[in-house]
Amino acid sequence: MDVKIEMTDDVAVLIPAGNLVASETDSFNLQIAKLIENNILFMLLDMSRINFIDSSGLDAVMAVRKLVTNGGGIIACAALNDNVLKVFRVTWADQKISITTTRSDGLRMIQELRTAQA
Amino acid sequence: MMNERMLTIEFEANFRNVDIARAALQGICAECFGVDTERASDITMAANEAMNNAVEHTGSTTVKLEVAWNDKELRVFVISGGSYFDPVTAAAELDQEDMRERDEGGYGLYMIRELVDRFDYEYRDSCNIWKLYKSTSL
Known about the structure:
The complex is a heterodimer of chains A (about 120) and B (about 140).
Chain A: E1 2-8, E2 11-20, H1 25-37, E3 42-46, E4 50-53, H2 55-70, E5 74-78, H3 82-90, E6 98-100, H4 103-117
Parallel strand pairs in A: 2-3, 2-4, 3-5, 5-6
Antiparallel strand pairs in A: 1-2
Helix pairs in contact in A: 1-2
Chain B: E1 5-12, H1 15-33, H2 37-57, E2 62-69, E3 73-80, H3 87-92, H4 96-101, H5 107-115, E4 118-124, E5 127-135
Antiparallel strand pairs in B: 1-2, 2-3, 3-5, 4-5
Helix pairs in contact in B: 1-2, 2-5
């Protein structure tokens, strides 16, 4: 899976593209693990290029959330299409991870939480 | 008599093949549900979970996807070998409280239960048959 990574004010914006499904989660996890190894613990998952997600993909997102929050970091997801958002809603994952409509809203929210944390 | 169409795909049990089978199902759903993309997506997601489960947990070397559709209903059967496992009972035991507290895992069965109109199971001739139903007309 292609995951583009952009740094914006110490927040890693991850932009995975395609389908976040069982056949792709190993590749996704590997790329995220590298960021966490490098102590990057403020992340925004820009999901605007994810067409379809399954429970394995959701598991991968929730595993990243656990690693990031256990390390004292903050993670949010942004720009989910209707189908992806439905998966988060049906499984109650939207109650466990912050979701914003746009990438800029997500970045703003992470910065506000960081300020509150400091 | 109702005009019914059917497609069967049998594939080697791996996740790449699930992607291909899902793409075929997406095409059928686009035809069945038309502009109702949400219902089309619901049954596609549910069937995808059933196929993933067959690949990951049954130990079966092949998985069969049977899709039948008419003016009223789309039926998806996911058939695999392996030992008896009743997903309907397992899914029924998952409640909202479980899901709220769960960090990882168990999402698949819950998704199937929530996304289809009816979910049945049969174990026949040493095969697990997961039966998913979605009405094509509201």
